[in-house]
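Appendix B. Raw example, untouched.
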Amino acid sequence: MKPTIAILCGGGPAPGINTVISSVAKIFLKDNYRVIGVHEGYKGLFAAEPEIKEFDFDHADRIFSRGGSTLIMSRHKPKDHEFSTKFFVDNNVKLLVTIGGDDTASTANRISKFLNGHDLDVKNIHVPKTIDNDLPLPDRNPTFGFHSAKDEGVKIGNTVYEDARTSQNWFVISTMGRSAGHLAFGIATACHFPMLIIPEMFYNTKPTLDKIVNLIISSMIKRRIRGINYGVALVSEGVFHVIDEEEIKRCGIRFTYDDHGHPELGNVSKSHIFNVLTQERLKELDIKIKSRPVEMGYELRCCRPIGFDLTLCTLLGIGVKKLYDNGMSGCIVSSNSKGDISPMFLSEMEDEMGKIPPRLVDMDSEISKLCFQNLHFLTEADFGEVPFLESPEEFDFFKILEWEE
């Protein structure tokens, strides 16, 4: 039996997955390897009868520029007792290529140790992906999928902004980003939105729903006194992960709850929550500004990759072959800004607790400082123009965030 390369995908989709799969398949098929894909990630890998996809050049060539994933994905994280050597022995697997986040990479490391303990020499090389751009890659290089998702978000964002201008009202948008605001930052700055709210902004103060709503209203009022009666406020969903859970439960929005009693944020529209709270606050202030919610989430994950990610994902896919030929295993394939391929190991990325700290938006960088200066918000200098506000300091951007002007 030919030596076999097995590919699986874990976690959620990101533009460019098919480009990685296609590039890995083509480069190994060229050297007469058998290449198979495993559906449903680790769940499929250890199933009694795994569902596999046999790759040939025709299929690999057909998918390289498509969005989504030709292999069905899964977030399943197997327990040690689920591990088995059967799939690897039956298919003569020499290399397991995993595509996913740090969880997928950690599980692959566990599997490698298990297989080595059973005298099976199966290499593993991991290709990192996330549209959140929050993995600490060298040179602050972007994770694959980020730029394509951002580009798709900009297309939607520009359309929404044009609607706001045309209809003379506001939109409150929420976009993905679990712990880092890279996606929201990139979309908002590209679209010239007047308000951007990301978790990294709250480095001097604890974020609350009231503070976020007041930031949105600060922008609305600032524009109104400048004669601009429309706009878009974009909020990264990551702020929900740094707000106290009890406050979220008390906000008046009805949630479903998981088995541990935690609100299931994935089941609700974050933009709807912020828009409702904003409208309630505006009503209390007797200010008539119409706003509508727009959720920017799953629309971004399976779009076609743009040229940047097509090139990056092709390089990473071919880079898998380079590392394998060099005898590397248990590593992550990465590329620097010059396009050089090198291995990274989880141990290089983990903190003292064994977790990979997310790469956050650098609030001290010049791009951050300049872009936040370009937002529209109330400051103390505007207080004389807002006599209708009893407590204008509640809407002072710098006071809310406890930033220095």
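End of appendix B.
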